[in-house]
Write a structure and sequence with these properties.
Elements: H1 10-54, H2 65-87, H3 93-99, H4 103-128
Length: about 130
Amino acid sequence: METNEIKIEDGSLQIVLNEMVGEQKQGNELIQEFIGSINNMRDKISSFDEKLSNQKVIIPDIDTAPIQRIIEKNNWEIKFLISESLKKVRENNFRLFLESDAKRWVVMLILGILFLTYLFLFCLHLSRR
């Protein structure tokens, strides 16, 4: 028995090989274009880096005097408010007591103590007889 071999004609083999070589050439050309564009971008980036490193940024002087004056003014106002709140005289407790509702209870307590005292004295007087 003969071995099974694939028989390809020379003409069709030549066509297939020519197509593969053509595709390989196109692939190589695309790779060369890609390499060229990468080199071009590398050059642009290096020139940009040079421009960036040579660039000098000038920062203008900022006038902070108005802001400092506002802060100092507010600090003085805060200090004044604190000193005024410390100087404020507190109302004495007796005046607060008179303005409150507790005076009624104190009056009732005093009257109760007086009543019990006179009741005690009256009981002592009755017990002596």
